[in-house]
Amino acid sequence: MTKGERLYEGKAKIVYITDDPDLLLIHFKDDATAFNGQKKGTISDKGVLNARISAALFRYLAEHGVANHFVDLPSEREMVARRLSIVPLEVVVRNVAAGSLAKRLGLAEGTRLARTVLEFYYKRDDLGDPLVNEYHIRALDLATPEEVAQLAATSLRVNDLLAAHLKPRRLELIDFKLEFGRTRDGQILLGDEISPDTCRFWDTETGERLDKDRFRRDLGGVEEAYQEVWRRIAG
Ligand code: TMP
Fold first, then answer.
1. One domain, residues 76 and 92
2. Residues 173 and 199: beta-carbon distance below 8 Å
3. What is the reported pTM?
4. Which residues sit with their C-beta closer than 6 Å to ligand 1?
5. Which of 46, 180, 194, 198 to mutate to test the pocket of ligand 1 (most atoms within 8 A of CB)?
6. Residue 212 and which of 19, 23, 29, 218 are 20 to 30 A apart at CA?
């Protein structure tokens, strides 16, 4: 497989086509943004760590029956993945109130939710990724009702699998964001990344934040947190 033209550059990744029409090469950058790109910075070695962490978690999920786009990690910050046409939704799963949910509903951060919360956001940077429900998704034809049901069920299964995998590694899964895409034959696969950029991980004993909130909120120790997550996931 050889790397071809650059297809797309996002805030944290660059995507290249390859000589195989069904495969992409995803380059993980050290660039970090927050608040829809208003805050910018770099986190040294973030790309390497997020590529490794994502690969390990995608492998674990595949072993437990959650089909995803991960194929291989041929170099430090490059991932080979199945080519998907992206479903323009972000699926957020929450176990504990934090971030925008804590703010929106007036809950103290760290409050355990009586039941898991699942949310959809419309992927539209120009609108700041607004929260949407199944009526909006239907009205805008973003996904079929069957696809929405599949996204929800898969995301809840990922929550159960990841929370169980991370707990013995002393990481509490507070919340996370997933993205999905369609293969050429219409199969829905989990895509994007699963990393401290897209999840909140708190130390199970101390509650210390080991994720991108250290960057978003200027808490310091950003690089160290990403390294610590990798150390715990690598075992
Ligand atoms: P939120 O509390 O800011 O809505 O974030 C919920 C989860 O989604 C959190 O684990 C971080 C992740 N997330 C992303 O991956 N990308 C984003 O653009 C945002 C806003 C959140």
1. no
2. yes
3. 0.98
4. 92, 98-101, 175-177, 198-200
5. 198
6. 23
